[in-house]
Write a structure and sequence with these properties.
mainly alpha; about 0% strand
């Protein structure tokens, strides 16, 4: 799928996709899900895969000291 096709699937202009690809524009979670769907990718699987990759990197909280 090229930029023009993806943009059409999203109901956006081609430059929207180009700005994402070049890092000039970030996408939020809702936009990411829309992009995944437009590309035929299951958002649930991608989100769970992302959580599995990120979770080990998050430090565990130490208990708060009692006053």
């Amino acid at each position: 799928m090229n930029q023009r096709e993806l943009a059409a699937a999203l109901g956006r202009e081609q430059n929207y996709v180009a700005r994402i690809e070049t890092g000039q524009r970030r996408v939020d979670l809702i936009e990411w899900i829309q992009l995944l769907r437009a590309l035929g990718v299951d958002p649930d699987k991608e989100i769970m895969a992302l959580v599995r990759r990120i979770a080990p990197l998050v430090p565990k909280r130490s208990p708060r000291p009692k006053p």
